[in-house]
Specification:
With 115 residues, this protein is an alpha+beta fold. It has a single domain, classed as HIT-like (HIT family, subunit A). The protein contains 3 helices and 5 strands; from the N terminus they run αβββαβαβ. It has helices at residues 6-11, 59-74, 90-93, and strands at residues 19-22, 26-30, 38-44, 84-86, 102-106. It is globular, with a radius of gyration of 14 Å. The structure holds adenosine monophosphate and zinc ion. Zinc ion binds at residues 2, 5, 7-8, 47, 99.
Length: 115
Amino acid sequence: MDKDCLFCKIINNVIPSNKIYEDDLLLAFNDINPQAPIHIIIVPKKHIRSLSDISQDDKELLGHIQFTISKIAKSFTELKNGYRVVNNCGNDGGQTVDHIHYHLLGGRVFGWPPG
Ligand code: AMP
Ligand code: ZN
């Protein structure tokens, strides 16, 4: 837990969130400023700053996150035709919250390349 981290506060219920899924290792909740009909944030409970800060020890956790995103996506009929998973990393990647997280977006068709 990083006491100054927004997502650590959400994980520890210091700040409320609209929870979609939770287990021992991660939490998924609705994004407060959705960019699509479905916009869910998936975070590990362990405070890791970004994808640039992962270690060998985190490989299993990252696999669990990916597997769980697939499981969550299967539970939404709006995502049956597909969805997008995004990780913004660092300044140039557009990361605004320094606790690694993945966006699960769907319910509309996305363009490519991203902005
Ligand atoms: P990123 O720009 O990739 O760091 O994404 C951070 C995301 O967190 C943005 O999509 C924000 O809308 C979202 N966000 C910020 N504060 C909250 C909050 N209190 N509850 C839910 N989502 C939030
Ligand atoms: Zn944190």
